[in-house]
Every structure is written in C-alpha cells, then in structure tokens.
Fold each of these.
Amino acid sequence: MSAVLLIEDDDRIRLSLAMALEDEGYQTHAVPTAEEGLEMQRRQPADAVLVDLMLPGMDGFECIRQLRRTDDVPIIVVSARDDTHDIVAGLEAGADDYVVKPVAVKELAARLRALRRRGRSASATPAVTVLTFGDLEIRPEAGEVRLHGEPVAVTRTEFRLLCELAEHPGQVLSRQQLLSRVWEYEIGDERLVDVHVGRLRHKIEDSAGKPRHLVTVRGLGYKLQP
Amino acid sequence: MRRAGLRTRVSAAFAVGALALSAGVTFVSYELISNTLFRERERAAVRATYFDAAAVNAGLGGSSPEVGELLQSLDIGADRYVLLQRGGQWYSRSAGPAASNAVPTALQEMAASGEAGAQRIRRDREAALVVAVPVQGDAVFYEIVSLAELERTLQLLALVLTAVAIMVSAGGAAVGWYVTRHALRPLAAVAEAASGIAEGDFDTRLDPDAEPDLARLTSSFNHMADELSRRLQRDRRFAADVSHELRSPLQTLAAAVSVLNRRRESLDERSAAAVGLIADEVARFQALVDDLLELARSDQPVHLEEADIGLLVARVLNSRNLPGDLLHTDPGTPVDWHVDRRRVEQALGNLLDNAVRYGGGPVAVRVGPGFLEVDDAGPGVPDEARATIFDRFVRGPSANARGGGDGTGLGLAIVAEHAAAHGGKASLGDRPGGGARFRIDLPMR
C-alpha cells in the first residue's frame, strides 16, 4: 500500500479526500498546513504529495519549492484556482501535475498511478544502457543523468520526459505525444510539457536561454540532440 | 448609395474650390490679355495703314498713276494685303483671288462717305483686320492684316491657362487629401486603440498630449477604456471568486459521495437509491460549474496555434471511448489548422456528448476545409427547437421525455461561443437519411 501526503487547509475537503483516497487504496496522511506537511514528509516520507495552493502561513508554492530541495517525490497540485498564472507558477515551483477542484477521486487516483508508474520504471535494474548526447549522459535503467560527467538531480517526471526524448534521438516529439507518454493524458494541458522542459533546461543545459540539447521545434514540439 | 467618405468629400470640396478660383483667374486674365493684344495689334495695323495710305495718296497725286505699281512699291510683310478701290474698281498687288470679297459692305459704305474705319473679319477661316482709309480722288485704300498669328498665340495661351487651372484643382484635391490625412490621423489612432480594446488588449490608452485639439476625445476615450477594464476585471474576479467558492464545497461533496457510493451494497435499498441520486447530482453540478465558468470566460481571446486536426479529432474520440473510424476527412482538407486547440477539443467533445445523450450516438465526424461536422443517429431536431438550440439552458426534447437530463444545457452554447471566438459559427443541419448534423465553421487563415 502506498502512502500519500495530503496538505489541505479546508477541514471538510481534507477529511473527505483522505477517506476517499483510502478507499482507493492509499494510506493517507492529511495535514492542514505546509509546515506540518514538510515536517511529516521529513519524518515519514510518502510516495506522493497532494498540495493545495492557498494555505495559511507558508503557501503551496513555497511548500513545493521546499519539498523539491530534498525530494523527487511526485507532487500534484490540487487547487480551486484555475487561472493560467497559478497553474504555471505551481508547475514552475516543481509540481509534476496540476488538477483543478473539484476533482473526481477516481481521476486523482489515476493521476497518482500514472506518476508512480513512471517512478517505478525509472528505478529498475542496474545500468546497462547509456544514452549519450554530447556532454549529456542518460542511464534510463539507473535513473541517472550526468552533465560533463557530474550527476544532475532531476525529478522522476523530468527524468521520464528526458528518457522519452532520449529514446528517440533527433526525432521531434509533439507536446501531445509527450503528454500521453509521460503523463498518460489523452487530452491534457500542454503547459505541463512546456514548464517541465523549462525546468529540465535549467538542469541539463549550460545556458537555459540558449538550449543546445533540448531544443524547441517551432510548431511541432521538442527534440533531444547532442 | 453609400455616402462618400469624409476624406473624399473634403478633397472634392478642395478640388472644386481650387477649380472655381483658378477658372475665374484664368478667364479674367485671358480676357485682359487678349483684349490688350488685339488692341495693340489693331493700333499698329491702323498706324501702318495710314502710313501706306499716305504713300498711296502721294502716288495718286502724280500725272499718270499706275495703281498696280504704286501698290507694289509699298513695303508690306507677308501677313498684310493691300487693296485700292477707285471708281468702283479694285486694284491689288497681284492678280490673286479677289480679296475684295473680304471687305465688308458696311465698311465700304462708311469709307465711301469719306470716313476711315476698321473692322475685324474672318478670312479663309482666319482672323483678320480690314482697315479702310479714304484717299484722294474718291479712292479708298484698304489693308487686310492677318491676325492668325495672334490668334494662335491666344489659343496657346488658353491651352496653357486651362492646363494650369486643371493642375491647380488637382493640386487642391491633393492638398485636401493630405490635410485630411493629417486631420484624421488622431482619429486613426483612436480607431486602432478601440479595435485593440475590442480584441482584448485592455492596456491600450491614447496619449493625451499627442493632439491638444482632441483632448476631450482622448480623455473620454481613456476614461471609457479605464471603466471598461475595471468592470471586466471586476467580472473576472467575481467569476474567479464564485469559482473558488463553488469548487471547494463541491470537492468535499465529490469525495464524500464517492466514499458513500463505494458502500452502497451495505446500505438498505432506499439509502442506496438516495446515495445514487446524490452522486449523479454532484457529478452534474460539477459539470454545470465547469460549463458556467467556461461560458464566463468565453469572451477571452482565443489562443491560436497550429494543431493537426486529424489527431485532435482522434484524441477527442478516444477520450469519449468512441471508435476512431468515425472520422472522415474530405480531400483537400489541410492537416494543420490554426485554432485554439483546447476550445476546439471542447466544442467537438460537447457535440459528441450531445450526440450520445440526445441523438442516439454519433455516426460520423466529418472534417473538411474549415469545418467539422458531427452526424448522429437520432430523429433530428424538430423545427420548433432549432432556433433556440444553441441558447443557454436549452435541453433536447428526448432528455425531457426521459426526465433524466444529465446534461447541463450549456454544452451547445459553449460550442457556439467557441466557434464565435474563432470568428466562425456553429450551425445545425440535417443528415441525409435522418438525424441531426451539427457543424462548426472555423475560418482558415
């Protein structure tokens, strides 16, 4: 049984979501503030984190940033706010996905499964394959990325996105293809892809503003090249 | 008839004014110049004639004057012609055609009575002047002076003046066009700003110092833009607040109901039925809130991007668990469309949901240049429902009959709004062989 940390200040939502998630087979730790959430994750790391954005004290964005400093755990924002600004800011802070309330519990469970599935595939058997793109090395089985020989810390979603592109070297993958392969969305928000690509560039490019490896192909999508 | 534009009218007025002015000036100056020139010429001709007449007079006083020789001895140019009438007989320098015909009778009579005179005539279709001077012995000396050269000069002058008048009036029109362009330039800025605002750029303002004469227009325009953007912001904030306030309790309801729903088997029959009802209503409420918020935001500008329409339709079909072979693409349909992907996906999805809910399921999705069509297997839409079918909160009759309308009544309204946001439209037709055919037209660019 996998554990989920739920950070939600609204008592009724917290209680009902915790019950519903437990029905779906998740062991749920539900806390009302970001501070308690961070403390809980330190003491007893969960396999996924669900976080609201509007929280008393530390807000959700800061909470995600703090979690990301030490943790590559899948983070899903569950917010009633659906304007572009909040969605992009939440993803840029380091969230892997963003769902807008009210979300059906089945849908939430499906999102969690999708995130965890790629988590598992990333940490399988020891390294055999090494995909090399110039000074960038990717070991899909080991879940490792190296730039100039130095290991780079990427989240599971970023790693999965990178592997998807690395397995098709030089080939353009559309945002929709990446959405369905990495996030398992049939119809989803392309900003997920764009923000994750942006985050990846900060990690695997010498200059994120002038990417050499992970390049945008205007009107088509993204590709990875040496 | 369409009224001519302000610029055209102002330019025309300038042209007409310039034409009137230049025509007046031209006419007056032509008259003055031609009168002066004719007078000068006449005076010169008369003076020359008197001079010649004096010579002839002296010659005639001799013992046996040979008139022909006398006339030959006169020093005249090519444009003058001399005649002498004596005792009813005409004498001239050469035996050419009788030039005497050219001398008007009135002048002859006047000269016969001993008075000198001059008269303008036309000879061989050319202007000429006849000067008559009585000389001794009842003779009259005539000189015919051709004015052809003067007339040609005046013709040329008239031509030049006409050309100048035309040019001046064209110049007037050009000045009008130029001046109005300058005068209307601030208005063009206003028009540009207004269309910017209409397209959703609410930061557009006019520079109040740019045109002091239009300060009032500028300030009231900016005031209007401020007011509009404030109201719009208030509306959006309200929608966002409503959204947030509705979404939070709905989240609790959705989660709690799913907990209950999972335990329906352990409930007694009545409770289980009640839970089922709540679950359905919560789902519908959820859809209603989403649709209402979608409509509240539908006036926002579209976010256009290239999208592969075939893949888009395939995705939407797949998301509805509908078979992909429903899609038929007309030959000549472009692959990539310049559309707001999310909105087109939602509009098509709503049409498919509509077909499933009220039309016995979709039988085909047809894609052609600039349009999408969804055919269903239902009975078609009755005439009385057609006019309002794209209105808000209008539901299909089959749903009413069943009494279990699980739609929000907003689906087709959203389709219409999304089509309109693209500058296209949604419409309803009939599928050959029965059934409804909903169509979305999107402008191709």
Amino acid sequence: MSNTQYAIRNTIVGGLWKENPVFRLLLGMCPTLAVTAAVKPALTMGLCVVFVLVCSNIVVSLMRNLLKPHLRILMFTLTIATFVTIADLLLKAFQPEMSAKLGPYIPLIIVNCIIICRAESCASKNGLVISIVDGLAMGAGFTVALCVLAAIREILATGAVMEINVMPQSFIPWAAMSMPVGAFITLGLVLGLINKISTKK
Amino acid sequence: MPLKKVKYFIEQSWLLIISALFFGLLIAAVNASLAPQIERNKINKLDNLMKKLLPQAEKFKVAAELQIDLAKGKKTKSTIYKAISKNGECVGWSFNCSGAGFADKIELVVAVDKNFEKMAGFDCLSSNETPGFGDKIKEAKWRKQFDGAPAENLTLAKTGNIEKIDSEIIAISGATVSSDAVVNILNNAMSQIKKQMTKIQN
C-alpha cells in the first residue's frame, strides 16, 4: 500500500471511529445535545456540517501556504462563516420546515469546534485530497453520531424513527427523552458504552 | 514613516482583504438567487395556515398593519388579512399575534368571521412549549374548541366538556401555563384589533 493510500485510510478510520468528533474528541457538543430529539433534524444538521466542513477544508488547504500564523484563525472563521451562511440560505429556500425546526443551530455551526479543529489540525497542514477525505470522514462521523443519539431518543420519546412507528402499541412514550434531560442522559450512556468498548481493545 | 506602515499592513493582510471581498460577493450572489424563493416559502406557509382556518376564502389581502400592546409595556405588530371568497365577498379576517408562553414566545395565526364576533380557529406559527405537555396547544384536538367560540373574553377552566363550543376554554392538563398563555394572547389581540379595525372602517 502506497503512502497516500495509507494516509487516506487512516483519515477515514480516524473520522469514523478513532477520532470521532462527538464520541472520542467531544467536540461540537452544542448541536449534539440540541438537535438530536428526532432523526430528521439530526440528519439535516449532519449533512450541513459535512457541506461546511468539506468546503472550508478545500479553501483552507488551497491557501495553506499563504496563511500568516497570527491571522490564520481570522481566515478560518471568515471561510467557515461564508459557507455556513450559504448552507443556511439553501436550507431556508429548499427545506423551510427543517430550517424553522433547527432555528439558530445552523448559524451556530460557525462556532462549532469540529470545523475549526479540522481546519487547524488537518487542512492547513495537508494537501487537497487528504483535506477533502478528512472533511467527508469527520463529517460522516459527526452525522452518524448524531443519528445514533437521535434514533435512541426518538424511539424512546415517540416510539418511532423518522416518524415511522417501530414500537409495539403497548409502548408508553417517555416525553422526557425529547427534552434536554433526555439528551444528557443518552449522550452520557452512549459515551460510557463507547469507552467500555474501546478500553477492552 | 506612514508609507512603511501601510506597506506592512497590506503585506500582512492582503489575503484576508481579498478573501473577505470574494466571500462577500459569493454570499451576495447566493442570497440574490435564493431570496425570492425564501420570500415565497414564508408567504406560502402563512397562506396555507390561513386557508385551513378559513376554507371558504380564495385569497387573502393585507388590510392593515396594527400595533398591539402586550403586558409590561411591550408592543408587537400584527398584520390583518381580509379573507375574500370566490364571489369577492369578505368571509372573515385573519391576523398573526404573539405573546409570552411557558418557555418561549408563542406566535399564533388567528381567523375570525367577518363581523369579528366568532372565531374560526387558530394555529401555531411558532412555539417552543414543553414536549408532551405544553406543545399540545398545536394539536387539532385541543384547538377545535376555539372553532366558533366568541371572539372576546375567553376564560380558562381546568375541567369541563372540551367539545362544547363556548367562551369557556378547557386547559390542557399538566400545561395550565401554556393554555393560559394562548387564551391571553387571543383575548388581548382580538379585543385590541377589533377596536382598531372598527375605528378604521367607520
């Protein structure tokens, strides 16, 4: 296996498992807690983050040799803010219901640590290909993590996933799971489980 | 040596200046191409809600923009729409109103008959009430008791027959604050709008 292939494989595994932004790095906790009451908004949020992450990684990677060390954070924020605004406008135009449901959490992607972390630790040091792969892998890791949490919460809160019933008739919904308390409990338990699995290895 | 300083400044920040300009143009272009669609979505949402409340209406015309006083000296704006049927007759009025809920602001769209005497129902534009309790204000089952209720002085009762249509509104059990908020918003908005609208029409 050549060096690049190895690096790409490493990046993908890193994004999805070893350095999963939500479960391993504990980055981007705000949307993780806020929009995981149901799978649909969580998926929309995840896809928005993938879009922003890939675009900002491309731009940062292309200008990495021109960056001045003391101005780099400013450049990162400028780039991220641009793509988040574009994503927000796209959602408002084509998914108005989702946009209303996610409310301020889409503009808040600007201050999401995952994106600035990837710009700083990956895109500003690596070439275009690795940066794009990293954006996709990290974004996918974030989306999967959000969807897992959202699926658990949605099933327990309403007995449905993506608004399709999966639980038996006799199931009593736990309203608490769709409230903030449900987010903290679910995240805590899932994090514990993941730590248990990873320490065994 | 101001020239030296300018040179240093440009040397350090040329990338930032150019990218800011470029990104600004990019956002402006995206916004220009999507703005009409976003505006249409907003109008469609309100139109659909109003059509559900007043099915006999064919179109809605903006009749007035009024100011409503809320409690504690706060004010809010309300747009009044005249509902016009196929034959061009006025079949009712519809307006948006808002006020404090249990967790966050509640925004409602309300429909009344043409004489401002009876309600034709209401719907939620936006609310953030507790899931499973307060957010039942969005459910058709609870909202049905407003359908045909008098358009003033609604009162809230803890128990009673939810199917009887009168000025007595039965609260959602476990969500008295949210129910009370809706009744208060409606009473406040309807009485003030009625007063201002009769003034305008006379």
